[in-house]
Design goal:
- By secondary structure, the protein is α/β, with parallel strands linked by helices.
- It folds into three domains: about 130 residues, Rossmann fold, CATH 3.40.50; about 170 residues, Rossmann fold (3-Layer(aba) Sandwich), CATH 3.40.50; about 130 residues, Orthogonal Bundle (Helicase, Ruva Protein, domain 3), CATH 1.10.8.
- About 45% of the residues lie in helices and about 15% in strands.
- A hairpin with an 8-residue loop joins strand 11 and strand 12.
- The longest helix is centred in the first third of the chain and has 33 residues.
- It binds adenosine-5'-triphosphate and magnesium ion.
- Adenosine-5'-triphosphate (ATP) binds next to helix 7 and helix 15.
Length: about 450
Amino acid sequence: MDDISNTRILIVDDEQVVRDSLREWFAEDGYHVTTAAGGVEALTRLATEPADLLLIDIKMPGMDGLELQRRVKQAAPEATVIIITAYAAVDTAVQALKAGAYDYITKPIDPDDLARVISKAAAHQRLARENVRLRERIDAIAEGDMPEIVGDSPAMDEVRRMTATIAETDATVLITGESGTGKELVARAIHRGSHRRNMSMVSVNCAGLPEGLIESELFGHEKGAFTGATYQRKGKFELADGGTLFFDEIGDISAKTQIDLLRALDDKRITRVGGTRVIPVDFRVIAATHRDLARAVEEEEFRLDLFYRFNVFTIELPPLRTRPSDIPLLAQHFLQRFARSMNRRANHFAPEALQRLQAYEWPGNVRELENAVERAVVLQRGEAIGPQDLPLPICAGEPPGPEPQTLAEIEHRHIECVLGATAGNVSRAARILGIDRVTLYSKIRKYDIPRQRTS
Ligand SMILES: Nc1ncnc2c1ncn2[C@@H]1O[C@H](COP(=O)(O)OP(=O)(O)OP(=O)(O)O)[C@@H](O)[C@H]1O
Ligand SMILES: [Mg+2]
């Protein structure tokens, strides 16, 4: 097997003998191995030292293997998990496989079995990594220089104009707006439009960083800086050198990190945790938040001096409900994209579907619209997306047109929506509607609701 030394393996087992013997076995074969005696230790390790393959014992005191697997999936979705299980407990292994584990081996561990599983998993990892790289390249080519910011409302025209103007400068930008309004999209557009476009845009998710790890995440650390720092690691500041540093959810950082950040932004020089060398860094800062930072300053949750650093240029993304004219454009944009990627025929919205989309409030903004369209493209096999292909709250929303409706019209529409929401499952729809199946079938006939969605 090639490039073994690039494959990093983390062994999690509460039995020291198992850890030691596996470590020895892998080290002999030239793999990069670390171990942890339990779930919490494994997660802490992962945060500072990414792993490609995890071998996880199912039965451990405290956090068990299944729970750990679930958390690893969130913390390191790209890692491949292999479960170690007692021969007698193969049914738990099956559960693990269903939850996304790649394979399992049984205790007592047979070296041949282990060798086979590992080499298969390492090959799988390589392919997966290759795939991600290819996809990123394809996406970059497809997007051209700038990701497209769709919308022709005056507010979005202004956002595009600001984005293009600011991109050419090296100024700090603060992007505000509710969740799902396109803050990250605009940040990417600014980066792509800037002279730093050929370097990376490095994202820091300020809301997702556990307090104990944030320093090393931002500044990196030297080998041996703290227990668990087995290797030297570069932080986000260094990784963004020459490029753009994107602080997502900046309103959520702790008071202590605000001070660290302020210093780094002013000095443009950092020191790794446990290190002494001063490293100059050159980056452009973009920050985003769904919070009202000025208010956070008033409430003494956000430092005024840091607020000034970020608040040089502000781009405000309006909620989708305040710009209904953008909805058809965005919906059509997503429809084309999903139909192409899923190879579907759907190419337009029925007028009633568009009406419902425009009448809806969109608490999740553009992201919610994107998800609704994706779901509709999956459900619809024809060319037109109808109201019944939309999620229930949107489908069952305001009736089309200003005229009052008859009870029969409302009943017809509601049955269509519920059938759409249950993907045509009559039994489930009848249960939701509180009527029996026979009655529902007779109403389906009465209103002539298309057969293909009443399977
Ligand atoms: N104007 C737009 N044109 C095209 N796509 C858009 C637009 N606005 C948002 N999107 C898409 O909607 C999705 C959500 O946008 P994005 O992730 O940028 O939102 P966000 O404001 O960062 O949300 P959150 O606060 O939840 O992180 C993305 O897939 C993005 O590409
Ligand atoms: Mg975001």
